Amino acid sequence: MDAQSARVALVHDWLTGMRGGEKCLEPLCRRWPDAQLFTLLHKPGSVSPTIERVRIRPSFLNRLPKVERYYRYLLPLMPFAAGWRVTDADLVISLSHAVAKSARPLKGVPHVCYCFTPMRYAWHMKDAYFQKRGVFGWLKSQAIDTLLSHIREWDRRTASRVTHFIAISNTVRARIRDCYNRDAAVIYPPVDTDFYTPSPEAREDFYLVVSALAPYKRFDLAIDACTKLGKKLIVIGSGQHAAKLKATAGANVSFLGWQSDEVIRDHLRRAKALLFPGEEDFGIVPLEAHACGCPVIGFARGGLTETVKPLGEATEPTGVFFSEQTVDATCEAIERFERARDRFDPRAARKQAVLFRKDRFEAELFSYLDAVLRGEPEEVRKAA
Known about the structure:
Elements: E1 8-12, H1 20-31, E2 36-39, H2 49-52, E3 55-58, H3 78-81, E4 85-86, E5 91-96, E6 104-105, E7 111-115, H4 126-129, H5 134-158, E8 164-167, H6 170-180, E9 185-186, E10 207-210, H7 219-229, E11 233-236, H8 242-248, E12 253-257, H9 261-270, E13 273-276, H10 284-291, E14 296-299, E15 319-322, H11 327-339, H12 346-354, H13 358-373, H14 378-383
Parallel strand pairs: 1-2, 1-5, 2-3, 4-6, 5-7, 7-8, 8-9, 10-11, 10-13, 11-12, 13-14, 14-15
Helix pairs in contact: 7-11, 10-12
């Protein structure tokens, strides 16, 4: 079947902002502008015009007042809202880190899931999202454990609706195998190396955090380490963990909230290094930092190990790893970086980022999807 004439249905968990997942969705909307786009909820104007122009079909959750403010607390309802029955498509493409992969095409219609991770709330990071405290916290934890057990069962069962999995990293490929007993191809997400570029400005005396401030991202380690060492830290981002982080931060830590891409780029061009202490599925921000010539100091697990070349292992290092998520380990990594700052060449960081550029992502993804539409066997698709 010709890819351009194929009827395509897209599925995305929710459309509330232009983050990494939406940057992966955007090229699909550009290639198939007549596609239907199924999603749990849509905040109009929150994503790019390319995405806004396709036929967006939100679930009943979208009718709840101001739902974009609290939708993450609606996890128990999401499986009911995600029962998308897709009847008029030649190809279904879901981009999923929660429920999008549960879409149900007609029999014989391929369903390709570009998987950011199996639902992290229910699987490998549930403790970071649901922490129990005291007796009432323990009772709450028992209820949460029961709920998550049902959601894991539903999540594993609906994996059978996917005919082809693509993982965003080898880290996620392993999780797909563990959770669903399925294999996956690996296609890394895109990094906008045309926008994120170096500048001739000198590096300044501050470290940088850029992210949604969620508990599992462990930015408490970056803040506590910089407070302990007396290092200047600038935090760009907001989220449910922001108030707690601000309460423990020293006077050397500045919180800027959400900022434009231009402001983020400006800081990445001037920071000594980006701090990235969480375990991520892939991690686009570290590569955006590299694209600006900025080194990365981060936790040696997850997608970061596939994108950053660490000091002590690489001839042209682009970052420093620490192996334990503790304040002391984070401090030691910062001090190692400072002792070896002359080892980090901005050109090496830029060279590493360019390997993950946007046109590479689109070429690999579209080649895979075209092979699926042609009905080619798995080994041919993986070689494409």
